[in-house]
Each structure stands twice: as structure tokens, then as C-alpha cells.
Amino acid sequence: MSDSKQVEIVELKHKTGKSSVSVSLFGATITSWKIFNTDMLWLSKKASLDGSRPIRGGIPIVFPQFGPGKLRQHGFARVSMWEHDSTTHDLQSGDCTAVFILKSNDTTRADWPHDFELQYQVQLGMTNLVTQLTCKNTGEAAFDFTALLHSYFPVSSIDEATIRGLYGLNYIDTIDENKVKTERDTLLTFKGEVDRIYKREVVTGADGRVRGNEVVFIGDGGNCDVGVKSVNFTDIVVWNPWAKKAEAMPDMEEDGWKHFVCVEAGSVSHPVKLGPGESWSAGQNLTLRILREAGEELARTSTGPRLDPLKPSGQ
Ligand code: BG6
User: What is the CA(208)–ligand 1 centre distance, in A?
Assistant: First the structure.
């Protein structure tokens, strides 16, 4: 990892000392989230933290365009310098929250001629991380955009990686001519490149928010899962480049593709439209879920973290 001219990183530590998160002002990219000193996100050893290219790993923010298109791949938010607005601590729970801001400026307007303010809130709990993106249209004309939180989750081996919670969802298979298919596996496993846009079932409540299929779980055959609960995002992108595509990425460490899966909460299949003065917010809650055996083991050790054992995977 190059850290010669590393862009400033804001670090938050939970009051219990059990968890921490680091956010680079370059893209407001979360570069690390740790619980009990264990990495909960994958970051390539070759990731550039000096602002020279998007950060390969952690949670880059994709805005205002997902993928290739008129603008640069995945938009400019992940390669813009954000402002650190505030950090607050909740004395009772020990949680900390940092807020980052990106406002339209000459550089963003050169790419995308709209006035906006993005606010990114990162809230660290002892065993969870909540991130929320808000976009306000501060201009006089309507615009539309796509946005996504591009989370990289570590797995001990891609052969063991599983994702639950996608069963029954329709998805666009971007490596098979964008065909629309329906997920028929309760447990998604990886046997080759995967690049899919799963459309969460959209059920609009009275408040206009998206409901249904809110949590997917990522497992790697070990004793813990991470749950991704998305709020108000319409899609979940699942991606692993596999060997050949990974080889072409200069910032991918050797065999790095074997050690992560991307599960990306976003609104990408239909652009979000915002009129002048309107705001939109969406986010995700990432939660460590300790499976029964690990939970029982922890319960036996008086110094271990106090977490309730949950049902094992698959139940
Ligand atoms: C995923 C896309 O979100 O990001 C993939 O679905 C893309 O198609 C991947 O390859 C990585 O993109 P980038 O620009 O960070 O290499």
C-alpha cells in the first residue's frame, strides 16, 4: 500500500475500545472497519491512499453514475476531496458519528453540470457500522443520478464465500448480455466471475420508502457473518472479478480476488430524480453476526465480548 503522500484519514474509536473505523477524505472512502481487532472490510495491499486513483477496497462511494457511461467509471465522488464536517460521541452508548460533505464545485460541474450537496454520515457502534448518504439538489433545475456504497468484504477463500438473502430476486447479469434472470439459489456461491445487479423487491410504504428483502448475509465458512441491511436503496450489486479481470487491475494485490466479495447497496437500475430543493437519503447497516458455536465459546470466556449467540447460518 502506498502511503507516501497519504490523504488525511479520520479515525473513530468506539468508547469500549472494541471497534474502530477509518475514513479517507479522498472520496470519503472508509478504508478500515475493525471489530475486536479483526478487519471487517477488505483493502488491497496495493490500494493507493494518496489520491492518485480510486481506493481499491473498503467502501468507496459511487455517485452520480454507477459503472461506465457519460461520466468517468463510477462517477467523481470517490475521487473528490471531501470535507470532514463533524465528529460526535454518544456518551451513553459509546457510539461515534462523523459527517463528511461534498458540495458541487468547478471540478464537479466540469464533469456534471448540477448543483448539489452530498452528506455522508458514518456511525460506529460496537458491533455495527451505519453509513448514510444524503443528496440535496441545491440548484434550480432537476437532475438524476445513480449512487452506491461499494463495500468490499473479506472472505478467507472465495471458494467458501456465500451470500444469503437474494433468493427470488430478479437480477441483471452484466456478464451475460445484461439478461434479466431470477435467483434460484438460497445460498449464492462463487465459481467464476460474478457481476450482477439484484433488484430488491420494491414495496412502497405510505412514506414512500422501499421495503422488503432488506438484509443479505455474507459468510465465509467461519463462525461469523456480516449482515448488510440496506435502507431506501433499490438494488444490491454482487461482484467478484475472478482471476483474469483481477490481473488487469494494477491496484489488486496478487490473488486478492480470492479474498473478497463486493456486496454493494445502491440505487442503480433506475436513476433517482431530484427536483430543486429536494433531498434523498439511503444507507446501510453492516452488522457482525456471531453464529451459535462462536457465541457459546465467547459466553464461556468472562473476558470475551458480550454478544448474544444467534442461530447458525441457513436457519
Ligand atoms: C462493480 C461493478 O460495482 O465495480 C463492476 O459492478 C466493476 O462492473 C467493479 O468492475 C469495480 O469497478 P472499479 O472501477 O472500481 O474497478
Answer: 29
